[in-house]
Amino acid sequence: MVNFFRSVRVIAHREFLRFIQDKPRLFSSFSMPLIFLVIFGAGFSRLIGQIIPDVDYIQFMYPGILCMPILMTSVMSGVSVVWDREFGFLKEVLVSPLNRSGVLAGKAAGAGIIALIQGSIMLAVAPFLNVAVGPRTVLTLIPLILILSFALSALGLLIGARMRSQQGFQLLMQLVIFPMLFLSGIFFPVAQVARWLEVLSKLNPVTYGIDAIRQAFLGAEVAGVTVFGHTMGILESALVVAMVGAVFLTGAIWVFNRRD
Amino acid sequence: MNVIEASNLVKRFGNLEAVRGVSFTVREGEIFGFLGPNGAGKTTAINILCTLLYPTAGEAKVNGYDVVKECSKVRQSIGLIFQESTLDDYLTAEQNLRFHGYAYAVPRDVLESRLKELLEMVELWDRRKAKIRTYSGGMKRRLEIARGLLHRPRVLFLDEPTLGLDPQTRRRIWDYIRDLRKRENLTIFMTTHYMDEAENCDRVAIIDYGRIVVMDTLEALKDGVGGDVISVRTEDNDEAMRLLVGQYKLTPSMRNGVISFTVPRGEEFLPGFVSGFPVPISSVGLARPTLEDVFLQVTGRSIREQEADPMHDMKQMVRGRGRGR
Question: Which one of B88, B92, B133 would you mutate to disrupt binding with A, by most A Cβ within 10 Å of its Cβ?
Answer without folding.
Answer: B88
